[in-house]
Amino acid sequence: MEAHKIEVTRTAHFYTLGIAGPSTQYCIIACHGYGQLAKNFIRKFDGIAGEDTLVIAPEALSKFYWQGFSGDPVASWMTREHRLDEILDYCRYLSQLYLEYKKILPENVKIILFGFSQGCATQMRWVFQDQPTFDTLVLWAGMMPDDLDYLANVHLWMNRDVHFIYGTQDEFITPERMDHYQTFFQNNQIPVVQRRFTGTHTVDRATLAEWFAEYKKR
Questions:
Q1: How far is CA 174 from the centre of its chain?
Q2: Global model pTM greater than 0.85
Q3: Mean pLDDT across the stretch 114-140?
Q4: Which region holds residue 141: left if phi is over 0, alpha if psi is between -120 and 50, else beta?
Q5: What is the spatial distance between Cα 195 and Cα 183, in angstroms, rounded to a whole number?
Q6: Which is nearest to 113 in space by CA: 210, 218, 25, 27?
């Protein structure tokens, strides 16, 4: 057996809330987690989108049925099968989407990269691969990949905010994993503002609205 590959054109789907225009002050690019769809995920942001805030939710390129053949269709950013190709594909996709909107947004718009769960690693790999300009990174119930060289790329964090937000009952963030996260941030010299809320593995609307209200006051 001999393995081969070719590059093909894909049709990607994304959803928006809010206004893209001269009055846009904040643009949030929100990447969903494993086993989600962007059209459902973006609803978490309906309380903060508006005339001054645009939310863009790209949907991952890989689809599957959540429960065999009878469950709802959902999406995943990547798996370990041909992972480097999948990473390159979604980085190209995110960059193309990013550049399309940068053309129509004000030069001083604040760009917030938001990742939930698997979407956190997606955002980080995109940042390392294509280095898009952004102001703030939000890691919600997810983490940065361990296999990237953060110390050699400290310029990616200069004058940028990094926030880590998670629920106190998140079944994926155990005390042992939290210890690992704290050590990871310290060893890689990544200044992180942490925030907790009472809840599970989800984007809590009230916490998101509270965080964003504080963010806009700075």
A1: 21
A2: yes
A3: 97
A4: left
A5: 17
A6: 27
Residue 182 and residue 58: Cα distance in Å, rounded?
A: 29
Distances (CA, A) of 36 to 12, 116, 124, 154, 200: 15, 10, 19, 32, 16
Report the candidate in 175, 18, 28, 33 with the shortest Cα–Cα distance to residue 97: 28
CA distances from 143 to 20, 113, 115, 138, 205 (A): 29, 13, 9, 10, 20
Using a 10 angstrom Cβ sphere, with 0-12 exposed, 13-18 middle and 19 or more buried, the burial of residue 128 is middle
The tens digit of pLDDT for each residue in 138-154 reads 999 999 999 999 999 98
Q: Which residue has the tokens 């009878």?
A: 70
The encoded tokens of residue 157 equal 């964090």
- For residue 72, the one-letter residue type is D
